[in-house]
Design goal:
heterotrimer, A alpha+beta, B alpha/beta, C alpha/beta, A: alpha+beta, five-stranded mixed β-sheet, 20 strands, 29% strand, elongated, B: Peroxisomal Thiolase, Chain A, domain 1, 2 domains, two-stranded antiparallel ribbon, 35% helix
Chain lengths: 389, 381, 398
């Protein structure tokens, strides 16, 4: 169909019923004929009576009309309708002709119809389309030093398999799934499109199993960081949200006090010290000023371990960032609760387990601390606990 | 029937220090706890203390749920512990209500704070302003006080000389208070020439950075005698909030303090507080606040604060014989120190500072920028 | 045990909530709390003139605002009134209701409004939570809010298959309840036949704790109005919900001594024992008609039901498997969808008694329990596993 100014003549007439204002046509009784020459043109008849409007296409003769508008071609007709071409100019150039009450037409039509506007074009959004343009959104500055290969397995209509490789500040997309992916995300293509255009809540999709993750979950969570947000071409322009980001930082001097100080001093000597409650004899580790069960001051210390056994542990796949540094630890890692030798039954000691031993870690595993070469009296003095075979 | 009135049985104070780098909160609070237990013999658990109201602040402690680290020391294991997250005098008001309600008959109050831990308390109070405008202008509680001081000096005629006099007097009394921080006597000239912090507030007009801890044991009337033979009765407590944006406030009006005072006096059945009170402890972070808060408490008329100072009002009305907050208290528990001193006075335990035959005392505290919020506690022996 | 004497009775007469969302960028904190306050006042058919005192609380480092009640004064309605600011970590919302109860019961205040809120998007939540641990030691361990230690303990006791299935059933049940609550934040539309698939496909966070088991974060606020018996007698807009009793069982910072060779009594069980004993309740499962429990994860939900209801052995699993915690079960749990569905941390613990109160009123709308609700239980959880509990009653007849 011949398109001018982004639309067709037919669309102007097809939208007339929607644009008609019945209340404004009270007492109006007219028949208006339209004739548009050229390809994409045609003949239409508009009958307005009893506060209703009827539009019909006409083959052959228009018949009796109160007035008739004739345009030589669609471009003129559309242009004048959209007020992109002045009506006077078109009339004087002979590209438009009106038979009947011109003045009536000029005042009546704007009164009883909402001004025609070109409809918005909806761009088709597909998973394939979004992914093929992923390079345009890539942010090499945010991916500096990152090497990551991950994949999407999109099922259902419009689906496909894709591998994205980020390396040396570049991003490449190819079809198919490589064997050595850090992580693969499987979902329906429609789910992917929904998540990217914001019609589907990503968190809910992940949580409810609509998205399946095979591999490193942290890597999956990180992928969003390396790209600008996808902008839905059909979305209405949202009001820009001004954002002020401030990092508040106030330096602190934390005191250990003598009791916790003793703990750190013990670490310097590769000793794990506990306070002893004078009443219930609990071995409180880390040492405390008071036994919270007996409400009495503790005064004695005892050395525990160094060996012990594991009573419980957290194998962490998804780490929270350190609030002081913003760093996120490599996962997986494990934090274990350890019953050190000489500890009273409730008083476990929690610490990280050697990453090399994660596959061997069980409830009941016997462990011992691995010390830094030169302990200085700090958290870093114990590197981790390793499993004793 | 639940109890008719609540007593403060005992108080314990950790000395206010400029920099307790060698102790952590738990050490400080344990000293305070043992002092209280020594005085009263109270126990925890059924029949004893089952509820603790702590006071501390997350920003000053740089720790979310700042009371969590000290719960063990203050006795919270398997008991009820709640944190009063505003200035500590309000913990007394709250504990008073808990006991009057019949929920518990004993409440332990334990507050702590180390202003020396963070590099700047002004950076902390700057975060008390709204993130979009107030903070960006660099407002903090110090320069907010500066604005109020300037306006107050204009209204009342308070002079620089008088402010120096207030500081000199504070030091004289603080020297007699074993718990005070700034005890060194200073001449007025030194105050007037100390570095300007925020015009008109000079360094020596401002309360010094302090670390401290305070504990109090409150009991119902029926149980108070188990712990003390000198119960100090809470006869009135009230507080009041003013509005936040300075443009909406008259910084010299004392709106919130007058409101709180009126309510507290009504509860205590007191018509004229300046006649009834034998001892007054106001939270004066800055020198100008002493006469200004005395106006709010009704000890002199509106705008008469300078005259009050000139006529020896603080001496006559026994104001801040502890040295007041001007001698150094951490911001968030300064009111608890005021209440502690007031209690000691009514128990006859104020040593060299003792007002003979003291029967009625007022303890005051303020919170928020330029005294947006005030609390008034009336105690009677 | 000493009989509990309340100076005067206190009822909840107004409840107001804002919508919950992960991004409330269209309001600032003051506007958000004001919305909750206005909703509560409208619910009670009252104005600010009727309120004597405002009770406020939150964790400052979440929104990085020092003493936020100062800035919020205009939104809270605290101008010219008494005000208290009390915080207890995650339990703060419930504590505020307990505190308001004490303030009104004491006779010092007639009508009190309490307010809990959260605007996590304005701060750094993880920073806020991990900041809770001691800076010199425990903060480095980063055990945080995500943990599967309870799952491990339960698996040790009852076997992996049974526990994993029960926890997933709990999760789906909770989602079904959330689907009935139009105000709930996360509503996934899960079905029981997805149980096995979800057990396998939901990403693992820590050990057996999967993404689907965990609560998320929401922004929002909740306000409640409490008043005394005499005021209630003068007539209220909605039926009053009486606060019968409340209790808190707290504990310190140490998490290490929770999973040693011998496990200590949980604060949940301790609190429940004390509360029920002094109220003469021997069988909480029979006594209560609804339980709004603070459940941050499905495993904790399951474990704590056992603790709160003073159950033994595998009774809780039997009940779960038999559907007794469903909307039409013996004791409906979290008809609102609980914390897993909606978690505006500063308000979450207040939503529990709020939702329980709505149930007693018959006001809960889509998620209203069909049977009459006369006795309700609500719990709050916070920090290093401490507990707050409230008992609410339809009538003044205990």
């Amino acid at each position: 169909m011949a398109e001018f100014f982004g639309t067709t003549v037919a669309d102007i007439f097809n939208t007339m019923p929607k644009r008609f204002k019945p209340e404004a046509s009270k007492g109006v009784d007219v028949v208006i004929g339209y004739e548009c020459g050229g390809e994409g043109g045609g003949k239409w008849k508009l009958t307005v009576k009893d506060q209703t409007a009827k539009i019909e296409t006409v083959e052959g003769d228009l018949g009796p009309c109160t007035a008739t508008i004739m345009a030589s071609d669609p471009e003129t007709f559309i242009g004048v309708t959209l007020q992109k071409i002045g009506a006077i100019d078109a009339l004087s150039q002979g590209k438009m002709r009106v038979v009947g009450d011109t003045r009536m037409l000029m005042t009546l039509l704007p009164q009883i119809f909402v001004q025609y506007t070109v409809p918005e074009k909806k761009t088709e959004v597909t998973a394939r389309g979004i992914l093929s343009a992923i390079g345009d959104r890539f942010r090499p500055d945010k991916a500096a030093g990152v090497t990551l290969k991950y994949g999407y397995d999109l099922t259902g209509e419009g689906g496909g398999q894709f591998t994205i490789t980020i390396a040396d500040g570049t991003c490449t997309l190819k079809e198919g799934l490589d064997a050595d992916l850090a992580v693969k995300m499987t979902m329906e293509a429609a789910t992917y499109v929904g998540m990217m255009t914001g019609t589907i809540d990503g968190a809910a999709a992940f949580t409810s199993g609509k998205v399946r993750i095979d591999g490193d979950m942290m890597a999956a969570a990180a992928t969003g960081k390396y790209f600008d947000k996808y902008v839905d071409p059909n979305a209405e322009e949202a009001e820009e949200l001004l954002s002020l980001k401030v990092v508040t930082s106030i330096n602190q001097r934390f005191a250990t006090g003598p009791v916790m100080g003793k703990w750190f001093a013990g670490l310097r000597e590769k000793k794990l010290l506990a306070s002893v409650c004078p009443l219930c004899k609990r071995t409180l580790i880390l040492p405390q000023e008071i036994c919270q069960f007996c409400h009495v001051r503790t005064t004695d210390y005892v050395e525990l371990g160094p060996e012990g056994y594991v009573t419980n542990f957290d194998l962490v796949y998804f780490a929270s960032p350190d609030p002081l540094t913003g760093e996120v630890r490599d996962t997986p890692y494990a934090c274990a609760w350890i019953m050190l030798e000489n500890a009273t039954p409730e008083e476990a000691f929690a610490f990280e387990i050697d990453r090399k031993d994660l596959s061997k870690l069980k409830i009941g595993s016997r462990v011992r601390p691995v010390w830094a070469e030169k302990p200085t009296g700090s958290f870093r003095d114990i590197l981790h606990f390793e499993i004793i075979d | 029937m639940a109890t008719k009135r609540v007593a403060i049985c005992a108080v314990a104070q950790h000395k206010n220090e400029p920099d307790l780098w060698y102790r952590r909160f738990q050490n400080m609070l344990l000293d305070v706890l043992e002092d209280l237990q020594g005085q009263t013999g109270f126990k925890y658990g059924e029949g004893g203390v089952e509820m603790i109201v702590s006071t501390s602040d997350d920003f000053f402690d740089a720790r979310t749920i700042s009371n969590n680290g000290v719960t063990d020391v203050i006795g919270g294991q398997y008991l009820a512990e709640e944190k009063m997250a505003q200035e500590g005098l309000n913990a007394i008001g709250y504990a008073n209500a808990i006991i009057l309600s019949g929920h518990k008959d004993l409440v332990l109050i334990m507050g702590h704070c180390k202003e020396s831990q963070g590099e700047s308390r002004n950076m902390i109070t700057n975060c008390g302003f709204d993130p979009f405008y107030g903070r960006a202008t660099g407002l903090d509680y110090l320069n907010a006080a500066g604005l109020q001081a300037r306006a107050y000096m204009k209204k009342s005629g308070l002079t620089d000389d008088q402010m120096a006099e207030i500081v000199v007097r504070s030091r004289q009394w603080a020297a007699k208070n074993p718990y005070a921080n700034a005890q060194e006597a200073i001449p007025a000239g030194k105050v007037k020439s100390s570095p300007m912090l925020c015009d008109p507030i000079r360094q020596l007009h401002a309360y010094p950075v302090s670390d401290g801890a305070v504990g109090l044991l409150l009991a119902s009337e029926e149980r108070a005698k188990e712990f003390t033979d000198k119960p100090v009765w809470i006869t009135g407590f009230a507080n009041c909030m003013d509005t936040f944006f300075f443009g909406d406030r008259d910084l010299t009006s004392n709106f919130a303090l007058k409101n709180a005072t009126e309510k507290a006096c009504r509860k205590a059945g007191i018509q004229d507080l300046k006649k009834a009170a034998d001892v007054v402890e106001v939270m004066d972070c800055y020198a100008y606040q002493q006469p200004m808060w005395m106006e709010g408490l009704g000890f002199c008329g509106d705008g008469e604060g300078a005259r009050f100072i000139a006529e020896g009002g603080p001496g006559k009305h026994r104001v801040n014989l502890s040295g007041g907050t001007l001698a150094g208290n951490p911001l968030i528990i300064a009111g608890l120190y005021r209440a502690a001193e007031a209690t000691l006075q009514l128990q006859g335990g104020a040593g060299d500072r003792q007002v003979p035959d003291a029967k009625c005392a007022v303890a005051h505290s303020t919170n928020g920028p330029a005294g947006q919020f005030h609390s008034v506690l009336i105690l009677e022996a | 045990m000493k009989k509990h004497i309340k100076n005067r009775n206190v009822a909840i007469i107004g409840i107001g909530q804002t919508t919950l969302s992960s991004h409330k960028e269209d309001q600032n904190q003051v506007e958000m709390v004001s919305e909750a306050v206005r909703n509560a006042l409208a619910d009670a058919n009252m104005t600010l003139d009727d309120i004597d005192c405002i009770v406020h609380g939150n964790m400052e480092l979440f929104e990085m605002q020092f003493q936020p009640d100062m800035w919020h004064a205009l939104g809270c309605g605290s101008y010219g009134k008494d005000e208290y600011r009390i915080t207890t970590g995650g339990t703060v919302g419930a504590t505020l209701v307990c505190a308001s109860d004490s303030l009104v019961a004491s006779g010092q205040y007639d009508t009190v409004l309490c307010l809990g809120f959260e605007k996590l998007q304005e701060g750094n939540t993880t920073g806020g939570i991990t900041n809770m641990a001691d800076p010199l030691w425990f903060r480095n361990l980063q055990t945080g809010a995500l943990t599967s230690t309870t799952a491990t303990e339960m698996i040790k006791e009852f076997g992996k298959e049974r526990v994993l299935r029960a926890a997933m059933k709990y999760r789906i049940m909770i989602d079904k309840h959330a689907m009935l609550n139009e105000r709930a934040h996360r509503r996934l539309g899960l079905e029981y036949d997805q149980l096995e698939t979800l057990m396998e496909t939901s990403p693992q966070l820590v050990g057996e704790l999967r993404l689907i088991h965990m609560c998320s974060q929401s922004d929002g606020a909740c306000a409640m109005i409490l008043t005394n018996e005499d005021r209630v007698k003068k007539g209220t807009a909605k039926p009053p919900v009486w606060i019968r009793d409340h209790e808190t069982s707290h504990r310190g910072e140490n998490m290490s001594n929770l999973y040693g060779a011998k496990k200590p009594k949980s604060t949940h069980r301790d609190c429940a024992e004390k509360l029920f004993k002094r109220n003469g309740i021997e069988n909480p499962l029979e006594y209560f008609d609804v339980f709004e429990m603070y459940d941050p994860s499905a495993y904790w939900g399951l474990d704590w039901l056992r603790e709160f209801l003073l159950l033994k052995d595998d009774e809780v699993l039997n009940l779960m498997e038999a559907g007794e915690f469903d909307m039409d079960g013996k004791l409906p749990v979290n008809p609102s969808g609980g914390v897993i569905a909606s978690n505006p941390i500063g308000a979450t613990a207040m939503l529990r008694p709020a939702e329980a109160a709505l149930q007693i009123r018959g006001d809960a709308g889509g998620h209203q329990i069909k049977k009459e609700v006369r006795h309700a239980l609500a719990s709050g959880f916070g920090g290093t596993l401490w507990t707050v509990m409230l008992m609410l009653e339809k009538e003044l007849n205990w």
